């Protein structure tokens, strides 16, 4: 999780700022700043270790999960209806329209998977599902190659970094973090709906293996800790 990622960096840097301990996850619900004068100031602090106005979470807060707000600033969607603006929480950040195509991918596509909640299973390495994953990953490579206009993009190989747990790391699926998950789920549902209903309607929004992308983004609407992943794709 982003919390655990930041915690690892936090532990490494805490000797520089010993008074700033990583807060409990439930204390990071909401904005990253204690006071904010504009909507975009609530997403992150420029100098989280040096500014008293920053919550002591090294820029970890639930507001940052609303990254569809940032994507909307590209001006790829109309943003002229109440329905769309509600999904974007009527944010007041400036819009910087681009005339260029933009390539979007869901992180799980880097493994070729159609599920955003995967467990490593070596027994399935040579099964039909693994073969489909390899085909989708190869298609992603070809689509990126075409999008970037280069002749040969090297094959994508998964990288597994050696992992050592750090004291204080959490399992977001533990019951004590249900309130945090509820907030993140609300953000995920709005982001998923906006991407499927509005962003993908733009001819400038480019994705690889569209059915896979749609299926992955649809899964954001459900709590992965309580909902089994599904291979069924439905239309929004």
Automatic annotation (TrEMBL):
Biased composition (Acidic residues): 119-132
Record region (Disordered): 110-135
Protein name as it appears in the record: Uncharacterized protein
């Amino acid at each position: 999780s982003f919390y655990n990622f930041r915690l690892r960096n936090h532990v490494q840097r805490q000797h520089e700022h010993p008074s700033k301990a990583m807060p409990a996850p439930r204390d990071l619900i909401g904005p990253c700043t204690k006071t904010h004068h504009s909507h975009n100031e609530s997403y992150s602090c420029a100098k989280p270790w040096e500014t008293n106005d920053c919550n002591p979470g090294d820029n970890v807060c639930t507001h940052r999960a609303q990254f569809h707000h940032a994507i909307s600033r590209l001006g790829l969607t109309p943003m002229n209806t109440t329905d769309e603006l509600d999904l974007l929480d009527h944010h007041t950040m400036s819009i910087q329209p681009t005339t260029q195509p933009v390539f979007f991918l869901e992180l799980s596509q880097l493994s070729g998977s159609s599920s955003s909640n995967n467990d490593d299973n070596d027994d399935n390495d040579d099964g039909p599902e693994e073969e489909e994953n390899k085909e989708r990953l190869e298609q992603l490579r070809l689509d990126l190659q075409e999008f970037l206009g280069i002749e040969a993009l090297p094959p994508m190989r998964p990288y597994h970094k050696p992992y050592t747990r750090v004291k204080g790391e959490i399992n977001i699926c533990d019951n004590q973090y249900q309130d945090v998950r509820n907030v993140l789920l609300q953000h995920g549902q709005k982001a998923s709906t906006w991407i499927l209903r509005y962003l993908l309607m733009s001819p400038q929004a480019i994705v690889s293996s569209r059915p896979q992308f749609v299926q992955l983004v649809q899964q954001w609407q459900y709590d992965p800790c309580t909902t089994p992943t599904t291979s069924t794709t439905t239309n929004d």
